[in-house]
Design brief:
By secondary structure, this protein is an alpha+beta fold. The chain contains seven helices and 14 strands. The strands form three sheets. A seven-stranded mixed sheet has the order 3-4-5-6-7-8-9, with helices on both faces. The chain is globular, with a radius of gyration of 17 Å. It starts with a helix and ends with a helix.
Length: about 250
């Protein structure tokens, strides 16, 4: 939590200023803020846990440090496009995977100074106050959220899913930060979330937050999720089956 907060302050110091931006793909961006935040987080982890491995967005594949069974999964700036355009919806998200299972996760939104955190078996919290998913019972009464994959033109089902969800729910939002979207599911602000083309650093902390807050996470067919293989559907649990029917 302390490391995520400090990394978030690094982002805030650069937010709204003219900064270096380069493309990782046609529309996928990386800024000097991503790199500065990631370096800070990685250096901090290496100092305290030199035998752990690290998987960080801008560093590529996980680099094994020692022989430990623990891996830190980091997105130093989720919502880079928002950040680069001065839109204040972005965050730092960090998770710890131990022996293949996410056991700790944090998502810090520096613009709102909100810290979402979870530990396996001990619940989820927002600024150290326990949170739970919403009590919405029907998809038609739900506020749901999604994200647009970078390769949307190659995803034949995406437009159908989006249109069908608009018709089946109260409203659909798209904020540009999957980690914040999932934290909002955990805190009851959104009722459901679906997205394709995500990476493990986008969802690792969010999966734990939602589960510890009483929600459900799965593939579109309802099977157990693997953070290394998208897509993902996450809900408060009550609307999950209805939402899956829209997505299949």
């Amino acid at each position: 939590m302390e490391t995520a907060r400090e990394a978030g302050h690094i982002l805030l110091e650069k937010f709204g200023r003219k900064i270096g931006v380069r493309k990782k793909g046609d529309i996928n961006l990386v800024t000097e803020a991503d790199l500065a935040s990631e370096k800070f987080i990685v250096d901090k982890i290496k100092t305290h846990y030199p035998r752990h491995s690290i998987l960080a967005e801008e560093s590529g594949d996980a680099v094994q440090i020692g022989e430990g069974a623990s891996k830190w999964i980091i997105d130093p700036l989720d919502g880079t496009t928002n950040f680069a355009h001065g839109y204040p919806c972005f965050c730092v998200t960090i998770a710890l995977e131990h022996e293949g299972e996410i056991v700790v996760g944090v998502t810090y939104d520096p613009t709102r100074d909100e810290m979402f955190s979870a530990e396996k078996g001990r619940g989820a919290s927002l600024d150290n106050k326990q949170i739970e998913v919403s009590e919405t019972q029907k998809l038609g009464d739900s506020l749901v959220v999604t994200g647009f994959p970078y390769d949307i033109a190659k995803r034949a089902d995406f437009a159908r899913h989006f249109t069908d969800m608009l018709l089946a729910t109260r409203a659909v939002r798209r904020d540009g930060s999957a980690a914040i979207d999932m934290a909002y599911i955990a805190s009851g602000r959104f009722d459901g979330f679906w997205e394709e083309g995500l990476n493990p650093w986008d969802v690792a902390a969010g999966v734990l937050l939602i589960r510890e807050a009483g929600g459900r996470v799965s593939y579109y067919d309802g099977s157990e999720i693997d953070i290394y293989r998208p897509p993902i559907c996450a809900t408060n649990g009550s609307i999950h089956e209805e939402m899956l029917r829209v997505l299949t």
